Amino acid sequence: MEEEKTMKEWTDDEYLLYVNAREGSCLWEILADRTRSEDEKLWEEYVPVFSRLIVRWQRLGFLKVPRGTEWPAAHIGDDVPTGQVAALVQDPESWKYDPLDANYGREGR
């Protein structure tokens, strides 16, 4: 069983995910925050990092992954079932910015 860490022991990526999860951020927003850039090429290296964290934290009950067609999906959408989260975050398309659904992220489809 994984030993729990205090917030002081979290990595920068863990803290950033915590903040973004509390804000109900879209997947692409996590990457934009991490890189402080709108350049999706820079985002790519962090997809595996946040994919692992999201799957692990969702299984532990630390966060929910919302899906919805309106913003904020975190408040009015449905939660992605545990068995579907890994497939969602492993799909590169889930992390891409799309101006047509910028308010709720591609994960909302």
Polypeptide structure, described:
The protein is mainly alpha-helical and 109 residues long. It has helices at residues 12-23, 27-35, 40-43, 47-60, 73-76, 82-90; strands at residues 66-67, 78-79. Helix 1 crosses helix 2 and helix 4 packs antiparallel against helix 6. The longest helix is centred in the middle third of the chain and has 14 residues, at 47-60. Residues 102-109 have low confidence and may be disordered.
What separation lies between the terminal Cα atoms? 34 Å
Query: Runs with pLDDT <50, length 5+?
Result: 102-109
Report the strand count.
Answer: 2
Report the average pLDDT across residues: 83
Shape: globular
Q: Gyration radius, to the nearest Å?
A: 13 Å
Helix share of residues? 40-55%
Main sheet makeup:
2 strands, antiparallel
Strand content: under 5%
N-to-C order of helices and strands: HHHHEHEH
* Number of separate helices: 6
Structural class, from secondary structure content? mainly alpha
What strand order characterises the main sheet?
Answer: 1-2
Main attributes of the structure:
two-stranded antiparallel sheet, 48% helix, mainly alpha, 109 residues, globular, 2 strands
Task: List strands and helices in order, with pairings.
Blueprint: H1 12-23, H2 27-35, H3 40-43, H4 47-60, E1 66-67, H5 73-76, E2 78-79, H6 82-90
Antiparallel strand pairs: 1-2
Helix pairs in contact: 1-2, 4-6
